[in-house]
Write a structure and sequence with these properties.
- Strand 8 and strand 9 form a beta hairpin.
- The strands form 4 sheets. Strands 16, 17, 18, 19, 20, 21 and 22 form a 7-stranded mixed β-sheet that branches. A 6-stranded mixed beta barrel has the order 4-5-10-7-9-8.
- By secondary structure, the protein is of the alpha+beta class.
- It is globular and about 100 Å long.
- Helix content is 49%, strand content 19%.
Length: 786
């Protein structure tokens, strides 16, 4: 039976190549998008699942109260790990992780690297297999294990075991031997490393660190259990140590400790602060799933309309089958089986489209390292469900509708085929509502990208270059060398830097504790970056009293005193600060974040780590090259730390560019599918009224009259789709933009007007193809067919 249905499907494709192409093309497009979205969602929800002990690992976290606001942090007090190992026999392993950045050298190769100081059991707890070497090397203090990327960066493709590398931390130097190289990390990971060092070396590298103090936090503490069910008992009993931490850090009092399951950390840990692991908020998966649903629904509705149109060529076959004894049930099963076969054909093309075009294209837009493993069983289960669902959803209504035809009416030619079918019109209307939403979204995301790129950062980012250099003596050395460059209009050092680094300061205003974002800068930093002083004055070089003065942005000024913050004072610990100037609001982070209240204060000279330069117009590139040359002259053994200020938000702008491209592609797909659906319904209408149009033409009807007759009913559908689609688009896009962007282009009537024109033009173009067909068909042909 199935073999017979397969043959019938192939004959149908051969008999109606255009309709079959439209159906397969639409379904293949939708299935390709669904496969791409599956790859993305799978990447998010299987991240970190490659670790063999994943179900037994937990990360210790702290709930800390900062200025009256409690939040969960990925950091824990330094002695916490030792307490866990000594007091809780249920814990099999405890691993501490502390990260430091420094310069790693081997010969002429010099780069900034991140060093992870870990306990020796790190590679027993986490599954990072080695390409070369032995993981037991972590037990030796002078041995390091590096990642494959780090190995290639320094040594190329050769085996680096036994090679010596020098680590510079501040003014101190330490020599380590490479004893292991990790294999390439899976893309689906939230934690990795560049260099692993025995944890005990942390004290050697940084003698000032006190690992016995409950007031000092470590970047991460992980535990591994033999029996994960013991975690609730451990969590309950560790609360006794909260008091020890609070005695030392009254500014960071803990309310409780807990243990976050490793398997949930990536998907449910987005709220956590100060964590060394990555996470996802799930918005990307949700939005992409909705997009895939949109396109799949459009393709299904499109298929339904085309399938009903194509049935005009199978009326005699249906009549013969009914006369020969076929029941409606058997006909329904036949049409559904044929549709599933057709969906399988579409899946083949959709699979090729998804894996060769959509997945690589999406990865290129967002640079997320998407992997697609065709060997995973869950993929084939997904594809099976997708094919069955799509086949049944798209074929159910046509099968039920067509199988209900009367054989007598078919052979007598009395069948009123499709002319008054309301469901196809409902499907088409819904298609255009979805297309309208997609077109509005594509326009708004494109406009928003342009809008954000044109936004005022609040300072002069276009004429500024900077360098990150440490220690402060070298920062001042670089500054002195660059001051002689005639292209530089202003130069200033700082501890922190706009869009790069900041800190937080706890202050007291009217007996209320606030945790405020803070920049510590040199006295001429404000002028160099051209931050606008709205009221008051900036810092003055050589004025010692300014160390007890601060500048605040406009938002902070409103918090201090809405009537006027100039001259107001506030406390931080035992120190009192006076507001001497108010800075116009500026962006410290990208435009997806709301501008925060900020304080700018002077930094001690021995803490400078940035040098910023504002250059003359037209000299940006040449001054940057001069900075590179001067750096090489002063610090030949250090990797260059210069950057263009405009480049600080490069990743953000690349991401929102991707948003715009994605929405334009989605809008294009929706337009194509909607046009195909409209083409099917217009064809159905024309096919069911062949005799009427032939008589009208014989009686002298012209183009204008026939166009009116054909377009009349579609004008109603289009009007309903626009009346519903445009307001729905406004509500959905408003909600989406408010969720994704703190700063976005104000919503105006323009994208809706453009979408209106595009949708109307799309309908006119599609319907015109059928009007032309009616006009070029001789009346005698239409009457003869009747």
């Amino acid at each position: 039976m199935l073999k017979s249905y397969l043959k019938t499907t192939l004959r149908t494709i051969k008999r109606s190549p255009l309709a079959s192409f439209i159906n397969i093309f639409g379904l293949a497009m939708a299935l390709g998008v669904a496969i791409m979205v599956y790859a993305f969602v799978d990447m998010e929800y299987t991240t970190d699942q490659f670790h063999e002990n994943k179900g037994d690992i937990y990360m210790a976290t702290s709930f800390l109260n900062r200025s009256g606001q409690e939040a969960e942090y990925g950091i824990t007090p330094s002695p916490f790990a030792e307490v866990l190992m000594n007091d809780f026999p249920q814990i099999d392993r405890v691993v501490r992780v502390e990260r430091l950045s420094g310069v790693l050298k081997n010969g002429a190769n010099v780069f900034n690297q991140s060093f992870s100081f870990v306990d020796p059991e790190f590679l027993d707890m986490f599954t990072f297999p080695l390409k070369w070497g032995d993981k037991s090397a972590l037990n030796q203090p002078n041995k390091i294990i590096i990642s494959e990327n780090t190995s290639i960066k320094y040594f190329g493709d050769k085996n680096p075991l036994g090679e010596s590398m020098t680590f510079e931390f501040g003014s101190n130097r330490y020599t380590f031997e490479v004893a292991g190289v990790a294999k390439k990390f899976p893309y689906k990971r939230s934690m990795a490393f560049q260099v692993l060092v025995n944890f005990d070396q942390l004290k050697q590298v940084n003698p000032d660190i006190d690992l016995t103090s409950w007031g000092r936090f470590l970047d991460a503490t992980f535990i591994q259990l033999d029996d994960p069910s013991a975690i609730s008992n451990i969590t309950q009993n560790v609360q006794q140590y909260v008091a020890l931490q609070n005695e030392v850090r009254k500014d960071y009092p803990a309310t409780r400790f807990r243990f976050f399951a490793w398997t949930d950390l990536y998907t449910k840990g987005d709220h956590m602060r100060n964590t060394i692991t990555g996470s996802t908020d799930g918005i990307g998966s949700l939005v992409l799933s909705i997009i895939a649903g949109f396109i799949l629904v459009l393709a299904i509705f499109n298929y339904i309309n085309i399938a009903i149109v194509s049935a005009t060529k199978r009326l005699k076959e249906i009549g013969v089958r009914k006369v020969m004894g076929s029941t409606r049930k058997s006909l329904v099963f036949q049409f559904l089986a044929e549709n599933v076969f057709l969906t399988l054909v579409a899946l083949v093309f959709g699979f090729i489209l998804g894996t060769t075009v959509l997945i690589p294209g999406f990865d290129q837009m967002f640079d997320i390292g998407m992997e697609f493993d065709i060997a995973q069983p869950s993929l084939w289960v997904f594809l099976l469900i997708l094919v069955v669902f799509t086949g049944l959803a798209s074929g159910a209504y046509p099968a039920l509708y067509i199988s209900n035809f009367s054989a007598v009416h078919i052979f007598r030619g009395r069948l009123k085929f499709g002319g008054k079918n309301k469901m196809t019109k409902v499907f088409l209307t819904f298609q255009y509502i979805l297309a309208c939403i997609a077109v509005v979204g594509g326009i708004m995301f494109t406009q928003n990208t342009t809008f954000q790129k044109s936004q005022d950062w609040g300072y002069n980012e276009e004429a500024t270059i900077s360098a990150n250099v440490f220690p402060a003596t070298e920062a001042m050395q670089l500054m002195a060398a660059m001051e002689a460059n005639p292209n530089i209009e202003s130069i200033a050092p700082s501890k922190h830097h706009l869009s790069r680094r900041a800190t937080r300061m706890e202050i007291q205003i009217l007996e209320e504790d606030l945790d405020i974002l803070t920049l510590e800068v040199g006295p001429e930093y404000i002028e160099t970056m051209e931050l606008e002083v709205v009221t008051g004055r900036s810092f003055e070089k050589g004025r010692e009293a300014d160390f007890q003065n601060v500048l605040v942005n406009e938002r902070m000024a409103r918090i201090i005193n809405p009537e006027g913050a100039l001259g107001e004072r506030f406390k931080s610990d035992t120190l009192s600060y006076a507001v001497i100037g108010i800075i116009k609001d500026f962006h410290q982070d990208d435009f997806s974040e709301e501008i925060e209240p900020m304080i700018i204060k002077l930094s001690p000279e021995d803490e400078y780590s940035f040098v910023s330069m504002r250059v003359k117009p037209g000299t940006l590139v040449s001054t940057y090259e001069a900075l590179e040359d001067k750096w090489a002259e002063l610090f030949p053994e250090k990797p260059f730390g210069g950057f263009y200020q405009e480049a600080t938000l490069e990743n953000y702008f690349r991401e929102i560019d991707g948003h715009g491209k994605l929405m334009r592609i989605v809008a294009s797909m929706c337009i194509i599918l909607s046009c195909l659906g409209l083409y099917g319904l217009v064809s159905l209408n024309v096919a069911s009224r062949t005799k009427e149009f032939s008589i009208r033409k014989a009686l002298g009807a012209g183009l204008k009259n026939l166009a009116y007759v054909i377009n009349r009913q579609f004008v109603v559908f289009l009007a309903v789709a626009l009346i519903l689609g445009l307001p729905i688009s406004y509500m959905l896009m408003s909600s989406l933009f408010e969720t994704v962007y703190e700063v976005h282009k104000p919503i105006t009537v323009i994208p809706f007007a453009i979408a209106f024109v595009i949708v109307v033009a799309m309908v006119i173009t599609t319907v015109s193809s059928q009007i032309r067909k009616v006009m070029t068909t001789a009346p005698t042909e239409g009457l003869r067919s009747e």
